[in-house]
Write the structure tokens for this entry.
Amino acid sequence: MTNATLTIRDHHFDTAALATSAALPNASANEQAALDFCCEWLSPAQSFMVDTSGSTGVPKSIALSRTQMCASVHATAAALELLSGMRSLVCLPVHAIAGRMMLVRGLELGLAMTLVEPAANPLAALPADAAIDFAAFVPLQLETLLAGPERARVDAMHAVLVGGGPINRALAEAIAPLHAPIYHTYGMTETATHVALRRLSGPAGSNTFIPLPGVALRLDARGSLAIQGPMTEGGWVQTNDLVNLHNDGSFVWLGRLDNVVNTGGIKVHIEPLEAVLETLLPELLGGAWDGRRFAIAAQPDARLGQMVVLLLEGASWPDDVQGTLLRALRERLGPYEAPRVLHYADRFAETSTGKIDRAATLARATSA
């Protein structure tokens, strides 16, 4: 049994207490789920159910083995130089793989874990002098932290993971000057979280993902990535992710094969188009651009089959601004990639892990 500890609010649990189903008065659903899982992990159980995110389909529960999850823990510990006694922050929902694996890392490596409710600013729940060595955030959380006084606390951490979605240009620029090692993760529930990392901070920042120790990669006939490693128990896991795979095993992520708008027989890949728009929208709109969230979606069209549409969060712009923007985008992007319509939603729909749900947001925007 390790010397791991878990702190929830003002309650402290050692490994022995966690192994015997520790009780917490007035526990939230997330707090109780954390305590229940710790007890389960410290039992002889060899298989564990984890919820998928639902970002590419209907959310479901899958079984992961103890062997897979431990392999992921030790590969991550080697890559990030995590040591027993380090202080970790668990601020992601523990029913999903990212939060669940933060608990497993703590229990297996003997970390001093602090659990807080998932929130945009998870450090706000901690005392100002509470230091954290290791944390994992979603992009929205890290963006919030770096925009305020918590930035210095993040920069003092030993290692930071950020995953669950793409890193936009503004967040990448905010991360780049930091000294703390901050890594964007690539992985999925089926691989017990990440199998590759790319450094975002400092002079070593890159758009290239480096596989964890023991991970092998290959492409199928479509150019989509397949993964093999100890966290897949030696089997190949096929993804729908398009990548540029280099000879040394590193890769650049391009987007998902199924995130495509088929418009007039031309396939437009959503993620690369969104990356271009991150630069174009502020440039074309000037003062009218307020940094709002946006996304590309596919809308059925009788003539083209599908058309590219731009979803924007917040109030609509005046007709003259919209018309000028659509014409400028058509000139810069061409007739197929340029959005044909702007749709607005007061608030974007999101998956259970905070990713933008394009289809649900489109439905919400067009019904408004």
About this structure: The two ends are 55 Å apart (CA to CA). The first helix runs from residue 15 to 19. Residues 260-367 form a domain with the GMP Synthetase; Chain A, domain 3 fold (CATH 3.30.300.30).
